[in-house]
Design goal:
OB fold (Dihydrolipoamide Acetyltransferase, E2P)
Length: 63
């Protein structure tokens, strides 16, 4: 599992981005990929999935 910090999350639209602790590009996260409500600066762990549109975080859990 990877870890990081929520950089941005739009609760109305249900998506945002996670900045991974190991660096690299920000990873897209959709509300369907988490069971927790996400807010900016939350520390999270997650799995990364390659989609047609790029990297996406799934199984996101606050840590």
């Amino acid at each position: 599992m990877a870890s990081g910090k929520v950089k941005f999350f739009n609760t109305e639209k249900g998506f945002g981005f996670i900045a991974p602790d190991q660096g690299g590009q920000d990873i897209f996260v959709h509300k369907s990929g988490t069971r927790d409500d996400l807010y900016e600066n939350d520390k999270v762990t997650f799995e990364v999935e390659q989609t047609q549109r790029g990297l996406s975080a799934i199984n996101v859990v606050k840590s």
